[in-house]
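Ticket #4471: complex job returned nothing on first submit. Input attached below:
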Amino acid sequence: MLELRQLTRRFGDLTALDGVSFSVAPGEICGFVGRNGAGKTTAMRIVLGLLEPHAGDVRWNGAPVDGTARRRFGYMPEERGLYPKMRVLSHLTYLARLHGMDKPAADRAAQAWVERLGVAERGEDRIEQLSLGNQQRVQLGAALVHDPQMLILDEPFSGLDPIGVDALAAVIRARAAEGVPVLFSSHQLELVERICQSVAIIDGGRIIAAGPVAQLRALEQRRPLVRVAVDGDAAAERLARLPGVAERERSGGRSVLALDEGVDSDAVLDAARRIGSVTHFELVRPTLAEIFREVVPG
Amino acid sequence: MSGMSSWRVIRLVAGREIAVRVRERSFLISSALSLVLIAGVTLLPLLMNSDDGLAVVAATDQRGAQVAESAARGPAGDQRIEVRRLTAEEARRSLAAQDVEAAVSARGITFQESPGDELVARLQEAHRRLAVADALGAAGLGPRQAQAALSPEPLSIVVVEPQDPQADARAGMAFIAVLVLYVQLLTFGFFVASGVVEEKASRVVELLLAAVKPRDLLAGKLLGIGALGLAQLVVIAGVGLAAASASGRLDIDSDVLYAIGLAGVWFILGYAFYASLFACAGALVPRQEELQSVTTPLTLMILIAFFLAFGVLQDPDGTLARVSAFIPPLAPMTLPPRIALGEATAVEVIGGVLVTLAAIAALVPLAARIYSGALLGTRTRVKLRDAWQGSRR
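Support reply: We reran it on our side without changes. The output follows.
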C-alpha cells in the first residue's frame, strides 16, 4: 500500500504540489491524470526520493518510505534514458544489481525479461543500436527487472505503437495480479479507463478527484449525460438552450447534454422532438474524459 | 541504506566504469598515446645519440695512422675511435658515403661536411703529443724519458661538493613524471566530467538516482575511473622504466622506484582533488557540447600547475618550490619534481601530503552536494548557486 499524504512542494515561487494525498492499494492499478505541468512528475519523483517534499510524507505499507523500500520500487521516468553504449543484457543486469539483486539472480532476471519483452535476440546489442520501439521495451525491462514490489510509471504509454500499448497493458495487469500496486500517469484517458481500477486527477498541484473509476462515474451520474442527434445546426442550437441541460460537446449535429439534477431524460427527448427530427437519442455512461472535463476547470 | 550496502553500490558503479571504459575507443587511444609518448621521450635521445659512440677514422698515410691510433689509445671520452687504413681515393669515397667520419694524413684532417668537435680535439691532441715526442727525440732524449716527460703523474682531483652522477637522469625522470602527471590528471579528470554528462544527456541518471544515492554514484564513478588512471600510470611507468634501462641511461635503483611510487601517490591525491571538481563541472551542464566551457577553469588550473612544475624543475630549491608544496591545487604537480630531485625534506613531503589530504576532505562533501544538487537539471545549464541549494531540497 502506497500512501501520499499532504505532499507539498515548491520550486521558487511556484507551488508545484499543494497538499496532494491519495493512495494505491496492493494489486490496484491507479491512473494519475492531469494536464502537463499539473504536478504528476513532481509527485512521482517525491515518491522515489528524487525530490524532497517541503511538507507531507510518503508511506509504504504503513511506514515512512526509505531507501531500502525504494530499492524495491520499479520506475520508468518520463524522460526515458539508458546508457547508449551498454549492451542490453549487461545493462539490465547492472540495474538489477543496483537494486540489490546478487549477480546470478540479476543475470537470470535480465535474461527472463529480454525474452518476455521480445528482445532476446538483441541481448548483446548496444542500446544505441536498437530501434526506438525496442529501446522502449528495454526501458520497461529496466523498471521491472528487479522484481519490484511497487511500480511507478511516468507516461509509460507515450510513444508506443498500438501493439506496444497492448503488450505494456498486459505486463501491468500481470504485475497487479501478483499484488503489486501500480501508479502510472497518462494523458490518454481512454487508456487509463481501460486499464485502471482507480484514478487520481490532479490540477494545479491539487488532487481534485481521486478514487475508484466506478465511484467517480457514480458521482458524475448525478448529472446524467444524453447524446442526442437532431437535424441541422439551428436545431442543435435550440437544444443547447433548453432549460435544465448544459451542452458538453457538439459535433456534426450530435450533442452531448448534461442534465441538471431532477431533470428527466424523457422530458428532454420530448422537448427535442418538438424542436426537430431526432435521429439518435441515448443515455451515456460518462467516459473518464468526460469526467475529467467536468472536474478540471477549463 | 547501511554503510555496507553503500559500499556495495560504490563497487558496482566503479566496476561498470572500468568494464565499459576499457573497451572505449577514447580510453584505448589515450593509453596508446601515453605509451608512445613515454617511450618516445625516453628513447628519443638515445636514438639521436646512437652514432656518437663510435667514430671511424680513415688514415691515408703513415703519419695519419700514427695520429689516429694515438688518439684511439688516448684518454677515452664519450667516443671510441676506430682506425681504418685506406688509400686517399678510398678515403674520399668513404667520406662521401659517410662510412668514415674523418680522414687523417700528414697534411691534415678532412671532413665531408661538419667537423666533430670532440674528434678534432682528440686528433689534434694526438698530433701534438707525437710532435713533442719527435722533438724530444731530436733533442737527444731516449724514448723512455720522452714518454715520462709526456705522461706525468696526473694531478689528483678533489670534489668538495660532488654532484650526483645521475643528476641529469634524475632531472629527466622528474620531467617525465611532471609530464605524465599533467596528462593523467587532465585526461582522467575529463573522463569523469564527460562520464557525468553522459548520464545526464542520456537521462539515465534519473533511473540511477531512483536506486542509489548521488553520493554513492559519485564515489563509484571517481573510484572506477581513478583505478583505471592508476593502472594506466603503472603500465606507463613500466614501459618508461623498460625503455630507460634499455637505453642504459638510468640504473633502476630504489631511488627511481621511490620516485615512481611518489608519482603514483601524487596522482591519487591530485586526481581526488581535481576529479571531484571535474564531476561538479560535468553535473552543471546538460550536453557534452557545453562541457568545454565549464571545465576551462579546471584545465587552466592544471596547466598553471604544470608550468610552475617546470619552474620547480629549474630551481628545485627555490621559493616557488617551497611555497607551492603547501598549495593544494599546485602541490600534486610541483612537489613530486622537488621530491624526485631530492630537495624536499621529510617535513615538506608529509606536510604537503597532509595539506592536500585536508583540502580533499573538505572538497569532496562540497563536490558531492553540488553534484547531487545539479544532476536532475537535464534540460538547461544549472547555476552553481542553484546546485548548491540543491534541486532536491
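The longest helix of chain B spans residues 167-201. Closing as resolved unless it happens again.
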